[in-house]
Amino acid sequence: MKKFNKTTGNNNIIFLKLIKNDYFEKNRINGELLHKDKVVANIVNDELEVLNEEMLPIYFKQNGDLRSWLENRCIDTDRENSRLLKNILEIEQTNQISTVLYAHAHTLTDNYWIRLSTEPNLKYDDIDFKNDILFDIAIFGELPSHDITLNSEYFCTPELTLGGSFEKGWTLKNNDWFLIKTGENLNNFAEIIASDLCKYFNFNAVEYFKFNSSSVCCKNFTNNLEFDFEPMFDFVGDDDDLELSLNYIENINKSFIPDFLDMIFLDALLLNPDRHTNNYGLLKNSNTGEYIGLAPIFDNNLALFATKCNNINLDTGNSSQIKNFYLPILEKYSYKIPNLIYTDLKEIVKAAYYQFNPEGFSIKFTTDFIWNKYNFIKDNLK
């Protein structure tokens, strides 16, 4: 083991572990895929030899390869703070495989991880996340105000396996993990409105709160890994065809369909352009591997006006996005639109508005915009 200090301004981050490099860019992976402490498959030269079919991630049952699975678990390398994190941890900047294996491919959304052949005695408890020591660096790019010591040979941080394009980080409060995500005022405004509307409609959804003037927060929806999240990406890749996703969900359990339709309705109501196969999926019992339902609705911060120019009107999106993309699916499954009262909607918008004060869109215009979408859906849903 090699000990070294890395100086960051007036502070030191002291490492007591082996330095990792670009080894896995040039060499194949050997070891084991585990779920908690159960070996699911042996890994021989990047290939899986399955030992426990029941606990195998669906991605591999769909003939997905190991390296692509690992890359999909990696922090977004385009995030500025991800580059800072990797620089501090001495990780090869461009190598996603080395980055994700630094954390043994472990995440805070499921219990899978990789044990390399060079570390046969490693246990789940050794790599389980126990602190948020790098949180401020991950989300705010702030170096610690005091020396910190990463004092385990197998130090792991959940920040290295947290995807998405917005700066974000995991923080630990009273033994519960919370996700903090930064954004512009319009992003956070949209996230809070979506969250509060879901609560109003009694949808299965993650509840978001204001964290500070530039961030929102939510509790880890896996309930600290009581459940495993399996993103729809693992079933269909990056195919955004909602009908295809519905077919998979229907084959797993038809009772999961109403929650999926609620998500589609919300996306139509708020003109969310960013529903992709990594921000919805299914939850599994982490002990049995049984599917228990859809993951709660999350990640709505590009809805409403976050990706739109100021030159919009109340009818924007009706005849194109809603009519062509969302209504056919809602009609096919005879979706019953939930009740919404204008004055209640206005209060939801007002509460979010005063938290983040977005520029360019008033409380009245935002309320009328959503109300217009609601009535367009209601009037055109056959």
Keywords:
382 residues; alpha+beta; Phosphatidylinositol 3-kinase Catalytic Subunit, Chain A, Domain 5; 2 domains; four-stranded antiparallel beta sheet; 14 helices; HipA-like C-terminal domain-containing protein
Can you tell me about this structure?
This is HipA-like C-terminal domain-containing protein. There is one protein chain. This protein is α+β, with helices and mostly antiparallel strands and 382 residues long. It has 2 domains: 3-164, no CATH class; 183-380, Phosphatidylinositol 3-kinase Catalytic Subunit, Chain A, Domain 5 (Orthogonal Bundle). The chain is 35% helix and 19% strand. It has helices at residues 23-26, 58-61, 66-72, 80-88, 96-102, 124-127, 135-140, 185-201, 233-236, 242-252, 257-269, 318-332, 342-356, 363-380, and strands spanning 3-8, 11-16, 31-35, 38-44, 47-50, 112-116, 148-150, 168-173, 176-182, 209-212, 215-219, 227-231, 281-285, 291-294. Strands 5-4-3-6 form a 4-stranded antiparallel beta sheet, with no helix packed on it. A 4-stranded antiparallel beta sheet has the order 8-9-11-10. Strand 1 (3-8) and strand 2 form a beta hairpin. Helix 8 runs antiparallel to helix 13 and helix 12 packs across helix 14 (363-380). The radius of gyration is 22 Å and the shape is globular. The N and C termini lie far apart (67 Å).
